[in-house]
Amino acid sequence: MNNNRSIVHMDLDTFFVSCERLLDSRLNGKPVLIGGTSDRGVVASCSYEARKFGIHSAMPMRMAKQLCPEAIVLRGNSGIYTKFSNDVTEVIKESVPLYEKTSIDEFYLDLTGMDKFFGCHKLASELRQRIIRETGLPISFGLSLNKTVSKIATGEAKPNNEIRIISGDEKPFLAPLSVKKIPMVGNVTYKALCDLGVKRIKTVQDMPMELMHKVLGKNGLSIWKKANGIDNSPVIQYHERKSISTERTFGQDTTDMHKLKGLVIAMAENLAFQLRRGHKLTACITFKIRYSDFQTYTQQQRIPYSAMDYNIIPVVLDLFKKLYNRRLLVRLIGVKFSHLVEGGHQVNLFEDNEMHLNLANAMDKMRKRYGDRVVMSAAGMEAKTISRWNPFNGEPPPLLANRHQ
């Protein structure tokens, strides 16, 4: 284990709001809410001015408006945010050999060994200034010897600032903070810890590891380690190529348009469900068709980050129509989603149409409980054999689904 690692966590401040402010400076300094704008919508992102009123993300929009009636409410625009996210990624890519993009607005950089040249902190600082200069977006970072401490440090640095935790200072830095600041502590765990009288990270540091294990199981061990500033997880090189795909070869070559279309929809639905289950979004859809003479054609289409059926299925069908020659016998069809990033939950909160969001959630719950095949749109019904496979749990895929890294 290398104790002199230099890991930077960079996070774009109130990313969606910052993008909107670049496009309309009248939003500067005002309380801004982004999310579903209907009565039943949810806040996906809010400006610091809005947070002063007690507003936070995932709060019902109706409640947020009551807390701050003068807030400006905007519908999220995935296309704009995708573009800005890619702009920031480009700047990082040019400056840092090893980086991981963990969501639409968040990055880890491994600068270990770079200090031989010019100091990691200086490098990170200059990169941050360059991002602000070139994209116009505010961004904060934390620098320490591991991911957990750096991520927590970024939270303390915000808005639009930077913090460095010198090696050896991890425990005293973490001690006074709320246990809520530990990345894996959600509301349920927080409540469990509060019931134990544990509110500050220092209390966890002072507890024996065994006690945390006894009370919270395996989770307790991880929390104890993170509270003590221990985290060996590596920065995993980010590739745009992360993808999930599924393809189907027919026993008999077919020209049955109805059957083909049903199968295409079922494949797209299944992959979109896998995305939502892994909290991922896709920005690129590829369709592939092979005819009985083995001529193979593929076409892809970039889309704004999404994991929702009604954004994805029309694109897949459109590609199918473009490539399908009804005079030829079809041997194989395939669908692939690539350019995957985390952040599905955040972006899906823009679904103003809560009906779509609720429908997707309800269908996903059923699928998790009873298997992928229990619910699907009528058009996808005929495709009985699209497999159950979760590409995000590390298991090898069955024959139907191929995962390309």
From TrEMBL:
Gene name linked to the record: dinB
Protein role: Poorly processive, error-prone DNA polymerase involved in untargeted mutagenesis. Copies undamaged DNA at stalled replication forks, which arise in vivo from mismatched or misaligned primer ends. These misaligned primers can be extended by PolIV. Exhibits no 3'-5' exonuclease (proofreading) activity. May be involved in translesional synthesis, in conjunction with the beta clamp from PolIII.
Cofactor: Mg(2+)
Catalytic center residues: E106
UniProt keyword terms in alphabetical order: Cytoplasm, DNA damage, DNA repair, DNA replication, DNA-binding, DNA-directed DNA polymerase, Magnesium, Metal-binding, Mutator protein, Nucleotidyltransferase, Transferase
Cofactor annotation comment: Binds 2 magnesium ions per subunit.
Lineage: Bacteria, Pseudomonadati, Bacteroidota, Flavobacteriia, Flavobacteriales
Residue numbers marked as site, Substrate discrimination: F16
Name of the protein this chain belongs to: DNA polymerase IV
Assembly: Monomer.
GO molecular function: damaged DNA binding; DNA-directed DNA polymerase activity; magnesium ion binding
Domain of life of the organism encoding this protein: Bacteria
Main location, first listed in the record: cytoplasm
Source organism per UniProt: Winogradskyella jejuensis
List of residues binding Mg(2+): D11, D105
Reaction(s) catalysed (UniProt annotation): DNA(n) + a 2'-deoxyribonucleoside 5'-triphosphate = DNA(n+1) + diphosphate
